[in-house]
Amino acid sequence: xxxxxxxxxxxxxxxxxxxxxxxxxxxxxxxxxxxxxxxxxxxxxxxxxxxxxxxxxxxxxxxxxxxxxxxxxxxxxxxxxxxxxxxxxxxxxxxxxxxxxxxxxxxxxxxxxxxxxxxxxxxxxxxxxxxxxxxxxxxxxxxxxxxxxxxxxxxxxxxxxxxxxxxxxxxxxxxxxxxxxxxxxxxxxxxxxxxxxxxxxxxxxxxxxxxxxxxxxxxxxxxxxxxxxxxxxxxxxxxxxxxxxxxxxxxxxxxxxxxxxxxxxxxxxxxxxxxxxxxxxxxxxxxxxxxxxxxxxxxxxxxxxxxxxxxxxxxxxxxxxxxxxxxxxxxxxxxxxxxxxxxxxxxxxxxxxxxxxxxxxxxxxxxxxxxxxxxxxxxx
Length: 380
Hints:
The chain is of the alpha/beta class and 380 residues long.
């Protein structure tokens, strides 16, 4: 297969601009060619008309498509993302704009396509990100490289580099999350989701070991008697395991995903322990919590008490069958109090409702898309 290198410019200034760009990048990778480089994201003033600011990037791809076929596929991607440029009259706001800047070092002229892009030398918001990925690429007509074109450009519109990054595919995006914690109440499905994410995106799976705790079945029979030894046992086990697992990177895995965060120890303890017991517990917890690794994204799966009880019944663990609805409601409240008290943490609450991400692939994809759309807005 004869692959050729093309350079594209992408922009968006309607709605969730970062995710419009990311969706376009995913689509380009899927249907046009293998993306080689992606520039940082820049924010720029609108060019040629009055409108909201744009988010812009440039990228390079290796593609087997010839220029006209490449253009046709670009139009399809734009249409999928809500833009039909054939219905536009002049410059207008747009959800996505994809232009071909260069195709190899060829000069290409037809009624529908001109390469190099004729406006390239006059657009600072194109030349600056292009300089990040192809500073020495020579314009085949003007015979100047990107850096020289940028220096000579008279466009003085606003242009600011943002802290955001985009990725050629979902696996690359998950890899840059580094560590994701999936949390939720008993029966919310956090372990199942962590399993699926680790399998689909090459993550190191960190699972809570709870079945081996000898106090757990006793606790569900007599909470007041076994609450303190249960919570202390959980805390010791979680701290040891969590510290070990999150400090040991797997060279063959791209990131880490866990089905719990150690802070859950304090949430459950506050619900189950007496006031004096909790004060003692919290002193020890605070010392431990300072030392553990914090997730880049904290995902909380919220589910109604009715659905939680139904899930618990289905999975059939004997010692869970008598869990009271009030206990689950208090746990949910504890999690929400934690999320509110830690606004500096990247918290994503996903209301599951009727979603069944175990049996339904579309529902699972909805969950993944929510995580991705949230992650795109985080600075890297």
